[in-house]
TrEMBL record:
One of its GO terms (cellular component) is dynein complex. Residues 6-47 form a coiled coil. The keyword Coiled coil applies. Keywords: Coiled coil. This is Dynein heavy chain coiled coil stalk domain-containing protein. The keyword Coiled coil applies. Signal peptide: none annotated.
Amino acid sequence: MLNDQVGHLEDMLANLRRQYAEAQSEMDKLKSDMNIMLRQLLAAEKLTSGLASEKKRWIETVAQLKRDKEKLLGHCLLASGFLNYLGPFTQEFRTR
């Protein structure tokens, strides 16, 4: 009878050790997953902050392009007048 109890307790101990090993394995896997997710979260935060600064730069670029667009007609007129003046005449003719 005592041997039966010892055998039963040894079986219970083996079962508990197996459960502990499984729980330990699961905990290690969860820790690994947590570390991966933390790295992904940090990368996402860096990307978000980087894009926020890019948004500011893009807004400034759009504003500058809008200002340049307002001057485009004048620049084109000046360029066409300059090319029209320089195009058909030689330097000698223009200096006379």
